[in-house]
């Protein structure tokens, strides 16, 4: 049988705190599962038995053990933050694009279309590429603000 790489050792106060969390059941389901993993791991239960007893994935058991050993029991109970990706346009660029969308349409067009605005982003070298969906989300995000400031009136083309 292979040795456990991350052995969970909890002091008595931590065990009491975790047992209280389980008995109250007020925290999120994922946290509850992690609490149970830590308690069983602290008892010395091998990972395969924890996996079977709690019906969780091997990676969840391994990651919970590792985070507890490396960062502490509190950190092991929480999800890591997922920062996502950086926005395609800065706030200043977005404001400029909104101003363009509210201006007169280019020659040959009655009004700005999302694809035209996406092409304008590339033309102005704000981004190497831009989809019309990015523009749609940007305009939707700022539509309420524009309406409140009076820049856009209901029924207008902007």
TrEMBL record:
Family matches, as InterPro entries: Homeodomain-like_sf
Family matches, as Pfam families: HTH_32 (PF13565)
UniProt name for this protein: Transposase
């Amino acid at each position: 049988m292979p040795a456990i790489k991350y052995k969970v050792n909890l002091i008595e106060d931590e065990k009491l705190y975790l047992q209280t969390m389980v008995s109250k059941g007020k925290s999120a389901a994922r946290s509850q599962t992690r609490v149970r993993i830590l308690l069983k791991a602290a008892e010395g239960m091998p990972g395969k038995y924890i996996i079977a007893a709690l019906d969780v994935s091997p990676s969840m058991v391994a990651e919970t053990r590792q985070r507890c050993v490396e960062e502490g029991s509190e950190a092991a109970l929480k999800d890591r933050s997922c920062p996502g990706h950086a926005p395609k346009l800065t706030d200043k660029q977005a404001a400029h694009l909104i101003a363009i969308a509210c201006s007169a349409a280019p020659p040959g067009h009655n009004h700005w279309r999302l694809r035209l605005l996406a092409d304008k982003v590339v033309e102005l070298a704000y981004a190497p590429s831009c989809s019309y969906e990015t523009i749609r989300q940007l305009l939707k995000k700022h539509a309420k603000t524009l309406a409140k400031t009076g820049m856009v009136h209901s029924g207008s083309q902007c």
